[in-house]
Structure prediction request, 562 residues.
Amino acid sequence: MDIQNHLESYNELIFSYFNSSLSKEDEKILIHWLNKDVANKNYFDECHEVWLSTKLKGAQKDFDSEEAFLRFKKKIKRTSSERYLLKRVSISLGKAAAVLLITFLLGVLAFSLAHKNKPGDLTYFTITVPGGSKTKMSLPDGTQVWLNSQSKLTYASNYNQTTREVKLEGEGYFKVAHDKKRPFLVNTSKITIRALGTEFNVKCYADEGLIEATLVTGSVKIEEIARKSNNKENSVILKPNEKLVFVKQTGKLYLKSDSLKTSQNQMIHPESPAIKEAREEKMIVKTIDPLPQIAWKEDKLVFTGENFDEIKAKLERWYGVTVQVSDSELISYHFKGSFEKETLEQALEALTLAAHFKYKIYKDHVTITK
Amino acid sequence: MNPMLGNKGLQLTSLNTFKQLFDDYYSMLCLVAYDMIKNKQLAEEIVDEVFINIWLKRESIEVYKSIRAYLVKSVQNRCINWLEQTKAERLLTESTFDIDTYEFVKWSEDYPLGNLLTIELQEKIEESIKTLPDQCRNIFLLSRNEELSYEKIASRLSISINTVKTQMKIALSRLRESLQDYLPLILFLLFR
Prediction:
C-alpha cells in the first residue's frame, strides 16, 4: 500500500472522530496511529483543517465578529492607562487652559514623587466594572479575577516583576496562579491581603463600613496598612472557610489577632452583637460557609438573612439601579434566598411574597413602599 | 496576502489593527474553540479573553511569522486549560467525554495552519461541497450543519451506518483533493 492510500485508509476513523461518533476501541486505534508517526498527525491536522473549513461559513453566523468587536471596545474603554488618560486630558483642555494643565501636571508629578519609588516609568491598567454587570479577566501571570459590579481593579506595568500587586475597590474573587517567588498582594483602602497561590474573595466597597475577605482554599495573610507604617504589624492569617471582617471606622485600635479568632458558625452581620464587639477590635475572624460569599461569581444573587438595607445595596449593584426605601420599618426585615437569572422585577416580586411591600420601577430607579 | 502576516513583528497598537483581526479571525477562532469544548458561549468567552489579553499586553507582545498561528495557539491553549480544569466534574457528568484525546485536537507544533480557514476561501469550499455526489453531499451536510451522529443520519435517510461512514470518508477525500492547492505542502515534501 502506498503512503497516500495508507493515510486515506484512516479517513473513516478521523472523520468519525471529528463528528464525535468514534467508538472507544476505534479511538484507541486512532490515538496509537497518531502517536506512531508525525506524518500521521500532520495528515490528521490537515483533515481537521478541511473539516473545520467547511464549517466556517456557519461559524460566521454563530459567532458575530462585529458584535464581538463592540464588546471588545467597551471592555478596553474601561481599561485605559494613565498615560492615555493624560493624552486625552490634554487634548480636551485646549490652549487657553494650558497653564492649568501645567499646574495639573506638576501636581501629578509631585503626587507620583511622593507616592512612588520609581516615578515616570510605570503604566497603570485599570479595569472598571459598571453597576449591573460583572466581568472575568486574567492577569499577566495567569491569575484569574472575577470582578463584581461597581468594582475597580488597578495594576501597574511592573506587575509580576518582583511582586504581583493589585489595588481593589469593590468586590473581587481571586484565583491566584501559584508562584512562590512573587507574592500576590491585594491592596484595599485599609488592609492588604497577601497570598502565594490560593482562592479568595475580597469585598471592600467605599460606601460600606466593612471590608471582608473570605478564604476558599490555600492560605492568606492580612495586614492592616496603617499599622504597618507604625511598624507595629497588625496581621491575621486566614485558613480555608474563614472570613475576616475589618471595621473601617473604629475608635480604639487595640488588637490581638489570636484572641479574635472565634469559630461560631454564623454569618457576620453589621447589626449583630459580634460586630458590635468588633467595632472596638477592628479585625474579626469567623468560620463560615464560603459558598454564599462567592455566589455572585457564578451569577447568583444570594441573600443569607441580611436586612433590607444590605439587600438594597446588593440589588443596586446587581441590577445597576438606585433603590429608595420610603418606610423605615422595612429596614428591619431580613431575607434569605437565591436568585440566578431573574430580572429585577422578578426578584422584587419574589421578595414581596416574603414581606408585604410594594415597589415601583421607573427607568433605573426603584421605589419601595409599605 | 494579508499585510499583517509579514515577517516583521506585528504592530498591535491601534484599534484599527484589532478591528482587522476581529474581521479576519474572530469566527474562525470561535470555531476552533467550539470544536474543542463544544460550547458556543464559552467558545466566544475564551476568544474574547484572548483578544483582551493581547490588547493588555500589546506593547510587550512580539508576534513573528503569523498572527493567525499565534491566535490559534492562544485559543487552543486556553481551551486545553479549561478542559484540564473541569476534567473532574465533566467526568462525572458527561459519559462521552474522554480525557485522553482532546490533546489531539490541538494542531501539532510543526503543522503550519493552511489557508483554508480564511473567509475569502469560503466560496471555493462551498463549491467543492456542491461537486460531491448527491448522497455523499446530503450525508456530509447533515453531519456538518446539524451535527447529527452517524446513527441519526442513517436512520433519517433510512440507510445503514456503514453507508454513512463510507460516504463521509469519500467526502473527506474529495474535499481534500479539491482543496489541495490551499493546504500546506507537508505531505508532499515528506514523501517526495
About this structure: The CA atoms of residues 70 and 152 of chain B lie 37 Å apart. The radius of gyration of chain B is 19 Å.
